[in-house]
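Narrative of activities, Objective 1.

The group set out to show that a structural description can be obtained from nothing but a protein's sequence at a throughput compatible with the screening campaign. Below is one input-output pair from the validation batch, recorded exactly as produced.
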Amino acid sequence: MVSRRGFLKIGGLSISSVGFVNSLFASQQDLQESKLSNMVSGVKPLEPEDYAARHEHARRLMAEHKLDGVFISGGTDMQYFTKANWFISERTFGVILNRKGKPVWVWPAFEAEAAREMIPRDEELRTWEEHENPFKLIAGVMRDLGAANGRLGIAPNTRGFVVFGLRKDAPELELVNGGVVTEGCRAVKTEKEIAFMDLANKITKLAYKEGFKRLREGMTARELSSAISAAHQQMGVTGGGSPQMGLSSAFPHGSRVPRTLKDGDAIVVDGGCSVEGYRSDVTRTVVFGNASDKQKKVWEIVRRSQVEALKAVRPGAACEEIDRVARKVIEDAGFGPGYKYFAHRLGHGIGMDGHEYPYLVKGNTLKLQEGMTFSDEPGIYIYGEFGVRIEDCFVVTEDGGRFLGGMEAVSLEQPFAEQ
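Output recorded for this entry:
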């Protein structure tokens, strides 16, 4: 079922993947003959110039939307713009991107030395003691930037207490949605980012292939998940897949009822990993043993929906149009209307977060741009019987779309194309 891989080109780097995983369910012969190789050891991280380009892009968007600054707290927004990674806290901390110059940091004083381990020495760090007001400190930064009564964008993932605190203690500032900057930058990926995601998706697909080799009567979802996680680890990343078996496969995000594998069970596995912080998201549906005619029919409908959606992808197309194309295939096949069987949107943006802006869903008229990345994951869920979902991530290209990581689904019996 699993073929040996050739070579994958990522940013000029050749990365070889050969053999198979050692897992709990491998035979001694498997252990001796099959080993997955590390696929990320030669991957180059982002350079300082990549972050400088992001800051410049942010400044252009701030000027376009008449913002004087954007406050960004912990999470992937902070990592994206600064490389700094800090846990979410009840204490106010963050960075203010601005149009005047380098970022300015606001941080609890007792964590200043830890902050300095992440923050470039030529960037200003302002601290507040435990009894002091961090919101007035943020207002002071804006005043010193010449924007005492300016417009401060707040990154969408900022915790509510920060927003309420600024409204109360810095009322002179006009607080606005900073997503026009953070999401505006992150939505369109560079060639490097796309290369990371290509590799991450390839790794997850190879890991699933390894896990599917271990299927056996009586297997639990946890055992299959362990095999998939082990395969990811063998290739140099932390990742996995969340399997749903039998009747549980009809639950889009899974059932809590424990089940063991038996002949004719549909198995839906959804999961991923990350390479240099960029995520994969892959779903495959297989059947253990003998598939019914209905399972085969539904699988073919879902796959056709996925393919037609990708055909509709092009710069300038509306996000909702891609969802509409996929949904029409499923409805025309008798599994409608609307969300009756295809119970969710077609897809989500993906990058440093598994789910991120923007979304392929009815009502979203945002136009696709070259470099945007999404999941394409139609499904049909029949409670009391089984579910089918097929998911690959894609990038919007100059004249269409391309699945990341290749290895598209071929048939119910062949969930991955040979590579």
